[in-house]
């Protein structure tokens, strides 16, 4: 760092000493990065005539000059998130609903919404009710079938018994067997073991 | 005291529409046909919503906010999450426009007014075709509004219910005027 600085200073002095004022070399050091106390003087001066000139030009051409605020240029050159930036020209704070028309529209909307909800609820309830009814009917039917089957078998047994009783022999044994078998009297009991 | 915003109005109407039918629009209808007729408006004051005549609301602006305790009819309260909770003080308005109703027998009035739910044995009459979880207004047998609640079962299902089964969940009852005397109108 140090040597380079000295070198620049050196060169600057050199140019100053050279005496050539309008030469390129004499003006160059002002444009490079090193800041000097003398600089503002030279920098401050140019805008004045420029501004005056531009205003004159604007007056002549009748062109409007926009200020930075009007253009809406962000202060920092960076991306601002969508939510952060406040919308311009919009009312600050809450927006109240106090007129009858807007209230009516909101009410109509809400009412329609509720109506739909109730309707769907009713439909659902009705469907469920139908399903329940169908299931109940089916269960009843099944019960009926089972009962009729039972009756049929009962009747069958009763008839069988009557026939047996009419034949006369081995009636006592049969009745005993049936009583022991209970609800399954149709299965003929096989005698498995016989001692001859 | 301020008017409601759009979302607040929507929330409030959605809540009221749970209990009332289409006649709710009469709530904000002008009182007569003259061009500058007085009408009822909703005003929010310290998170409570009031149903109040516009002329009265305008008069109330002359009272400082912290000194103003109440005006008109208090409908309920906006919670901090933005939901709306109806108070028992809204009962006269709900009863006027009620869609579904439940009438309780004389023996069921006291249990309800003490904060109990309505069991089937206490129901004298109910609106037909009422779905499940629907807001209902509870009346005594001589048509005095006692409170409001939400149905536990639809009307058809409730028929099959045993006598001790709950048919309507209580949400607010007139007994609150005594039980919640301290907090019902308190401003804090």
TrEMBL record, chain A:
<feature type="compositionally biased region" description="Polar residues">
    <location>
        <begin position="16"/>
        <end position="34"/>
    </location>
</feature>
<protein>
    <recommendedName>
        <fullName>60S ribosomal subunit assembly/export protein LOC1</fullName>
    </recommendedName>
</protein>
<comment type="similarity">
    <text>Belongs to the LOC1 family.</text>
</comment>
<keyword id="KW-0690">Ribosome biogenesis</keyword>
<dbReference type="GO" id="GO:0003729">
    <property type="term" value="F:mRNA binding"/>
</dbReference>
<dbReference type="GO" id="GO:0030687">
    <property type="term" value="C:preribosome, large subunit precursor"/>
</dbReference>
<keyword id="KW-0175">Coiled coil</keyword>
<dbReference type="GO" id="GO:0005730">
    <property type="term" value="C:nucleolus"/>
</dbReference>
<keyword id="KW-0509">mRNA transport</keyword>
<dbReference type="InterPro" id="IPR037650">
    <property type="entry name" value="Loc1"/>
</dbReference>
<feature type="region of interest" description="Disordered">
    <location>
        <begin position="1"/>
        <end position="59"/>
    </location>
</feature>
<feature type="compositionally biased region" description="Basic and acidic residues">
    <location>
        <begin position="166"/>
        <end position="176"/>
    </location>
</feature>
<keyword id="KW-0813">Transport</keyword>
<comment type="subunit">
    <text>Component of the 66S pre-ribosomal particle.</text>
</comment>
<dbReference type="GO" id="GO:0008298">
    <property type="term" value="P:intracellular mRNA localization"/>
</dbReference>
<keyword id="KW-0539">Nucleus</keyword>
<feature type="compositionally biased region" description="Basic residues">
    <location>
        <begin position="186"/>
        <end position="196"/>
    </location>
</feature>
<dbReference type="GO" id="GO:0051028">
    <property type="term" value="P:mRNA transport"/>
</dbReference>
<dbReference type="GO" id="GO:0042273">
    <property type="term" value="P:ribosomal large subunit biogenesis"/>
</dbReference>
<feature type="region of interest" description="Disordered">
    <location>
        <begin position="125"/>
        <end position="196"/>
    </location>
</feature>
<feature type="compositionally biased region" description="Basic and acidic residues">
    <location>
        <begin position="125"/>
        <end position="156"/>
    </location>
</feature>
<comment type="function">
    <text>Required for efficient assembly and nuclear export of the 60S ribosomal subunit.</text>
</comment>
Automatic annotation (TrEMBL), chain B:
<dbReference type="InterPro" id="IPR005155">
    <property type="entry name" value="UPF0113_PUA"/>
</dbReference>
<comment type="similarity">
    <text>Belongs to the NIP7 family.</text>
</comment>
<protein>
    <recommendedName>
        <fullName>60S ribosome subunit biogenesis protein NIP7</fullName>
    </recommendedName>
</protein>
<dbReference type="InterPro" id="IPR015947">
    <property type="entry name" value="PUA-like_sf"/>
</dbReference>
<dbReference type="InterPro" id="IPR002478">
    <property type="entry name" value="PUA"/>
</dbReference>
<dbReference type="InterPro" id="IPR016686">
    <property type="entry name" value="Ribosomal_synth_fac_NIP7"/>
</dbReference>
<dbReference type="GO" id="GO:0005730">
    <property type="term" value="C:nucleolus"/>
</dbReference>
<keyword id="KW-0690">Ribosome biogenesis</keyword>
<feature type="domain" description="PUA">
    <location>
        <begin position="100"/>
        <end position="175"/>
    </location>
</feature>
<comment type="subunit">
    <text>Interacts with pre-ribosome complex.</text>
</comment>
<dbReference type="GO" id="GO:1902626">
    <property type="term" value="P:assembly of large subunit precursor of preribosome"/>
</dbReference>
<dbReference type="Pfam" id="PF03657">
    <property type="entry name" value="UPF0113"/>
</dbReference>
<dbReference type="GO" id="GO:0003723">
    <property type="term" value="F:RNA binding"/>
</dbReference>
<dbReference type="InterPro" id="IPR055359">
    <property type="entry name" value="Nip7_N_euk"/>
</dbReference>
<keyword id="KW-0539">Nucleus</keyword>
<dbReference type="Pfam" id="PF17833">
    <property type="entry name" value="pre-PUA_NIP7"/>
</dbReference>
<comment type="function">
    <text>Required for proper 27S pre-rRNA processing and 60S ribosome subunit assembly.</text>
</comment>
<dbReference type="InterPro" id="IPR040598">
    <property type="entry name" value="NIP7_N"/>
</dbReference>
<keyword id="KW-0694">RNA-binding</keyword>
<dbReference type="InterPro" id="IPR036974">
    <property type="entry name" value="PUA_sf"/>
</dbReference>
């Amino acid at each position: 760092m140090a040597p380079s600085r000295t070198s620049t200073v050196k060169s600057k002095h050199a140019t100053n000493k050279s005496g050539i004022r309008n030469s390129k070399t004499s003006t160059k050091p002002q444009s490079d990065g090193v800041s000097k106390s003398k600089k503002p003087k030279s920098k401050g001066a140019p805008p004045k005539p420029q501004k005056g000139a531009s205003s004159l030009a604007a007056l002549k051409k009748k062109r409007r000059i926009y200020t930075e605020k009007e253009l809406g240029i962000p202060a920092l050159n960076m991306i601002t998130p969508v939510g952060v930036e406040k919308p311009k020209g919009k009312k600050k704070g809450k927006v109240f609903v106090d007129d009858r028309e807007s209230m009516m529209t909101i009410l109509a909307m809400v009412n329609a919404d509720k109506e739909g909800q109730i309707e769907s609820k009713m439909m659902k309830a009705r469907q469920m009710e139908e399903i329940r009814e169908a299931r109940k009917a089916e269960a009843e039917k099944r019960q009926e079938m089972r009962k009729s089957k039972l009756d049929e078998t009962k009747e069958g047994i009763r008839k069988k018994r009557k026939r047996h009783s009419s034949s006369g022999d081995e009636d006592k044994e049969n009745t005993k067997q049936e009583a022991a078998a209970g609800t399954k009297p149709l299965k003929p009991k096989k005698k498995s073991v016989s001692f001859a | 005291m301020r008017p409601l915003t759009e979302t607040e109005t929507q929330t409030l109407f959605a809540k009221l529409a749970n209990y009332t039918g289409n006649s709710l629009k009469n709530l904000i209808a002008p009182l007569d046909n003259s061009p500058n007729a007085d009408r009822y408006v909703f005003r929010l004051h310290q998170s409570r919503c009031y149903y109040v005549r516009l002329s009265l609301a305008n008069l109330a602006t002359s009272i400082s906010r912290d000194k103003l305790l109440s005006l008109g009819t208090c409908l309920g309260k906006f919670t901090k999450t933005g939901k709306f909770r109806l108070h028992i003080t809204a009962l006269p308005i709900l009863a006027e426009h009620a869609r579904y109703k439940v009438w309780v027998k004389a023996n069921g009035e006291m249990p309800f007014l003490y904060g109990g739910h309505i069991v089937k044995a206490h129901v004298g009459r109910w609106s037909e075709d009422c779905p499940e979880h629907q807001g209902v207004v509870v009346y005594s047998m001589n048509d005095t509004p006692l409170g409001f609640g939400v149905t536990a079962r639809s009307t058809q299902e409730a028929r099959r219910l045993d006598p001790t089964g709950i048919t309507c969940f209580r949400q607010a009852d007139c007994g609150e005027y005594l039980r919640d005397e301290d907090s019902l109108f308190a401003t804090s």
